[in-house]
Amino acid sequence: MIKSELVLKIAEQNPHLYQRDVENMVNAILDEIVDALRRGDRVELRGFGAFSVKQREARVGRNPRTGSKVAVAEKIVPYFKSGKEMRVRLNKVPAKPRARS
């Protein structure tokens, strides 16, 4: 699912809201998550999961085409850990249809 599909789904479920308003809300939520991560904060959405950042140290990598050494700068990367409720919901086994006699 991409962001525009998410906006459409939310707009369909809430016919009293305009699609542009839903898009603004989704963008605002995502922007706030990014801003919090940029500050080094952890973002926890109960029942969904937690976003945090991890710092990767500078290292020497290799160019896969030539095999030559390449300096890779240190960087901060986002990290997501799913919540227990999400894992439980994802792993629920759907009921099997009953066999007809």
Your description of this structure?
The chain has 101 residues and is an alpha+beta fold. The chain has two domains: 1-40; 42-83, HU Protein, Chain A, CATH 4.10.520.10. It has helices at residues 3-13, 19-38, 84-90, and strands at 43-45, 49-56, 59-62, 69-72, 75-82. Strands 1-2-5 form a three-stranded antiparallel beta sheet. It has a two-stranded antiparallel sheet with strand order 3-4. Helix 1 (3-13) crosses helix 2 (19-38). The chain is extended. The two termini are 39 Å apart.
Instruction: Let me know the CATH homologous superfamily of the largest domain.
Output: IHF-like DNA-binding proteins
Radius of gyration, in Å, reads 21 Å
CATH architecture of the largest domain: Irregular
What is the share of helical residues? Answer: 25-40%
What is the structural class?
alpha+beta
What key attributes describe this structure?
101 residues, alpha+beta, HU Protein, Chain A, 2 domains, 3-stranded antiparallel beta sheet, two-stranded antiparallel ribbon, 3 helices, 5 strands, extended
